[in-house]
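Lab notebook, design round three. We kept the backbone fixed and only want residue identities now. Task for the bench partner: fill in a sequence for the structure below.
Input structure tokens:
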């Protein structure tokens, strides 16, 4: 059994690869708006998936946390520009408090390799 950790830190790894599956930690980013944070987070997800040998077309599931569900449409505009038509994952979006007040969006994904 091989487990590979990507961007391993003292508290957590940004991604963990096991059995041809990559598990990403929830990604957050600074920025003034939900749209800006979402764009940055999606770029981070692209980079982590690439480091694991995967890409967004192989995402199996995504969980999106919003501090204000009223921003669902704003986040979705960026999401829909990013996902590949016909390759969209299963997804859940919930309203939740995040780790710091400046974060408005957090996205966690699991993908195949």
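Proposed sequence:
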């Amino acid at each position: 059994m091989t487990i590979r950790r990507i961007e391993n830190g003292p508290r957590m790894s940004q991604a963990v690869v096991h059995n041809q599956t990559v598990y990403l930690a929830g990604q957050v980013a600074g920025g003034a708006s939900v749209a800006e944070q979402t764009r940055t987070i999606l770029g981070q997800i692209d980079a982590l998936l690439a480091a694991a040998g995967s890409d967004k077309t192989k995402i199996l599931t995504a969980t999106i946390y919003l501090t204000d569900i009223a921003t669902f449409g704003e986040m979705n505009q960026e999401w829909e520009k990013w996902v590949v038509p016909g390759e969209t994952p299963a997804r859940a979006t919930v309203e939740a408090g995040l780790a710091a007040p400046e974060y408005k969006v957090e996205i966690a994904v699991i993908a195949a390799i």
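Keep this in mind before ordering anything: The first strand starts at residue 3 and ends at 8.
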